[in-house]
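Dear support,

Our group has been running a series of protein-ligand predictions, and this particular one with manganese (II) ion is the one our PI (initials K.S.) wants archived with full inputs and outputs. We had some confusion internally about which version of the output was final, so please treat the block below as the authoritative record. The input we submitted was:
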Amino acid sequence: MAELLRVQAEKSKCRSLRPLAFLLTVLVLVFLSAGVLSPRIPVLGTRPGGAGEAATKPAGQQVVKLPRMVYPQPRVLTPSRKDVLVLTPWLAPIIWEGTFNIDILNEQFRLQNVTVGLTIFAIKKYVVFLKLFLETAEEHFMVGHRVIYYVFTDRPGDVPRVPLRKGRRLVVLQVPAAARWQDVSMRRMEMISDFCARRFLREVAFLVCTDVDMRFRDHMGVEILSPLFATLHPGFYGATRQTFTYERRPQSQAYIPKDQGDFYYLGGLFGGSVSEVHRLTTACHQAMTTDRANGIEAVWHDESHLNRYLLDHKPTKVLSPEYLWDEQLLGWPAVMKKLRYVAVPKNHQEIRNR
Ligand code: UDP
Ligand code: GAL
Ligand code: MN
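Confirmed final output from the archive:
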């Protein structure tokens, strides 16, 4: 033992100058980097992000140190909206114009260095919707933040080249088409689930999953992001649960009895952290596989299964119908201060057939 200690003492004598040299090198490096790195990065302890690099922790959860900001004081005795429900009974915010300050939210999210993934499916003829979708997304979707568009398509050659802002890119994922439109719609769950494990978990913090037959016409930003969010269907926001078009046959995995249900959510806009979206899409895909084995298909396909999942797993944010609207069908009621994202009129028969 004594011999061992002596040998080590001698070794450390030989090395005695090394720590000093090391310390000097570190000091020089720290000094040099101080002027180069943004002060935000060390404050937050997050990685500097290159294209596609993402904070792995979902934002909106962590407490971040904000710079000094001047904005109107929130008044405890003055509700932000008196005409609509702004909080679910499980205390998830319902997002309406007038309930949030986008400057505060942008600053919080920017500090967390977040990349948002947007999944869209353009199978068969639906590639025609991509150009307007992407052009309007560049104007209104997550402006100022890093975005990756993931376009799932069987026709990669038909994906239009739309100029993208700095920090935004588009990834084409080639996938097979299904013959029936119902299967195209439902298989989105399986494909999103697969790609969560294959790349989304590494590349983005959040996923927004949406239909492609849409255009943005007003702001849709980080106020929608949360571990698990879904959108109120514009046709049912004022309806009672008995009239929701849930799957009502007990044989289906999507079954919801008449005395249950919170809201009727759309299949066309949901999302959250990659891990929550992975869970949701995997569960919905499994439920649809079970239904198929039992010879049953839910009335509104993936949307029915989404509603069942969200009854059991309450969303942490709910988007008002401002976030998905159909003006042709529903006009513009006063309660909608903004129409942010609207359906592009289409001829179902024509577009769904080859
Ligand atoms: N879809 C597709 N090709 C098809 C049918 C559907 O790419 O042939 C995708 C597309 O993203 C579309 C979504 O599935 O937005 C849902 O279908 P659709 O928009 O027709 O449903 P609706 O909004 O009319 O209920
Ligand atoms: C329709 C919509 C369908 C489905 C249905 C639910 O307006 O086009 O996709 O959501 O409502 O009842
Ligand atoms: Mn649609």
